[in-house]
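Quick question about two entries, pasted in order.
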Amino acid sequence: MDTNPERDPQAVVETRLIHATHRLGTGLLVDAGGRPSVPGEALAQLRDFLVVNLRHHHETEDEWLWPLIAAAAPGTKHALDELAEEHDRLDAALDRLAGTDDPSALREAAVEVRDSVHNHLAHEEPILFPALREHVTPAQWEEFAQRVVATTPPVAGHLMIGLLDEVGTPAEVESVLATMPPPMAELLPALRGQAAADLRVLRGMEP
């Protein structure tokens, strides 16, 4: 993966971290789904969080980010269209995951989503990271990121904070969370505490 935090623009830093949370979160759901000791409520919360956030993430790319990049670099359009098609296939996997509460079926669907997400990101990042560096200005990214934050569905958002804390440095996480509305920022300590407790339960540890 071609990343260098010292030179990367905020667009790449934020995208890299969000992708890392997607990898970690989908893997965690598979692992937790195989632990009989994990309460069904905890599995359902992580499942619902992942379904909503993965869907929202790729919808904002398809609707806002891909057109922005293609307008600046028309040569990227074919590759971006292929990524959008992969999003459509991921949608079908997310539908299956969202539609089951049976533990064995949930884990099977979670494996499909995890594998789809990991494969998709391995394809997307070599295309997206150079495009973000070369064709998206800091102002354009800031506007895009603010739109994403403003439209993110409020489903177990504390889990995103907990996952970010695990995949990023404190400085990186602070830079990502800088766009949070002030009322939410004041709740960060409580949200972090709740996320840590819930993630421990999902890992089969004492809460």
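Here is the second entry:
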Amino acid sequence: MSSDAARTARQFGDGPLSRAAARVYTLIVVEVLLLLACLPGLVPLVLLDPDASNIPLYAACVLPLAPALSAALYALHHQRPDLTDLRPAAAFRRGYRINLAGVLRIWVPLLAWLTVVAVNLAHLDVAAVPRWWAVPLVGVAAVATLVWTNALVITSLFAFRARDVARLALHFAVRAPGVSLGTALLLSASAAVTAVTSEAVLALAGSVCALALLRVAAPMTATIQREFTE
């Protein structure tokens, strides 16, 4: 390629319109791959009846969600701004491969515990516990989910040992209240969309949700990058 052609390619890839096009293209590719990765659980999840007896099946259906979301976070974080040098599919596959084991180590225990909580909440009368017991159960589940979300972002973007991920996730849940608040609002909005429409609608906005989570967690990831990796 001549110097003039190279200069033209750089100019084409550096403008605001090109950066916007790169972002849109990346979001579309990541969304398609995210849906494909979640498809084994998404199809039966949509078909399940909303009954308390199906709670364990719901948990099994969402098992592929965390690895897919982790790969989406990785791909969006490593997005190239140059429209002439985009490889979001390769980044997604790499993120899925290198983060799969680490994500499952934090996802499976949380999912199992949330399943137990959901079953107990659905059968409070059978469990012979007071109705007010639901309040602390929901509160603890919410806090655990917030800490886990921190852990998911950390696992997706950094290479730490599992116990260090847990410590950092808990640490930043307290140290960065703005991140916790933003994450809580994002999770609440996702839950509301699912309740009003369906899981499929939320899945269709999966890449946008992943990008929003990256933006919310940016102060945490920047601090980790500065204080724990340099």
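Reply: Confidence is low (pLDDT under 50) at residues 8-12. The chain is about 80% helix and 0% strand. Hope that helps.
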